[in-house]
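F.,

This is the one I mentioned.
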């Protein structure tokens, strides 16, 4: 075998061995450089998700059978994608003026099989009758609503009810807001309102992700 070929084969196996050692013992043994930084970032991000899912979970994000609200309480959010420090506004309407309700924010995930974790809870919110969308697909008592007769788009234009500032320690994920009135009726429509918080990316990447939801 030619000396050059022998040297090439030896170098190949040395490289393979180095890669295997690095994979087994962790990214800290790899040489510094762009690829190392990316690998460490991915590992760190993965660990954050693993640690998050180790928290105590709950299945209270689900709506109990028979407790689904139809017209008792309805809500929507100002956005579906938000960034750390941003404010997310919720617009809530109760069927009757002055009905109290609570807001519970959950992060959806594994959480030992429970499917969610309670992140925040606000009680004793005063509801205002701003109208509602009835089960027979008609608007009732919504003086602020605007309906586009061409497209069928409905703009509720309700007054803001609850504002959530996204905490910096909430990690990326799908979050759900559930609204419950004093009669224990919960919002429906996908079990609540979902929104996504992004982190660990450049500002440009965050804006792109936020735009696509």
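My design for it:
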């Amino acid at each position: 075998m030619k000396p050059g070929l022998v040297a090439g084969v030896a170098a190949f196996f040395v490289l393979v061995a180095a890669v295997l050692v690095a994979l087994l013992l962790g990214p800290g043994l790899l040489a510094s450089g762009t690829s190392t930084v990316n690998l460490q970032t991915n590992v760190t991000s993965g660990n954050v998700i693993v640690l998050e899912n180790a928290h105590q979970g709950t299945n209270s994000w689900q709506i109990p059978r028979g407790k689904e609200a139809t017209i008792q309480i309805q809500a929507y959010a100002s956005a579906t994608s938000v960034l750390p420090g941003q404010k997310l506004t919720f617009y809530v309407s109760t069927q009757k003026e002055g009905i109290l309700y609570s807001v519970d924010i959950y992060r959806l995930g594994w959480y030992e099989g429970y499917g969610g974790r309670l992140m925040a809870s606000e009680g004793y919110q005063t509801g205002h009758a701003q109208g509602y969308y009835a089960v027979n697909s008609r608007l009732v008592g919504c003086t602020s609503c605007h309906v586009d007769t061409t497209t069928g788009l409905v703009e509720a234009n309700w007054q803001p009810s609850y504002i959530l500032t996204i905490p910096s320690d909430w990690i990326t994920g799908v979050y759900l807001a559930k609204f419950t009135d004093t009669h224990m009726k919960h919002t429906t429509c996908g079990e609540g309102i979902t929104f996504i918080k992004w982190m660990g990316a450049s500002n440009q990447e965050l804006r792109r992700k936020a735009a696509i939801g």
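The chain has a mean pLDDT of 75.

Talk soon.
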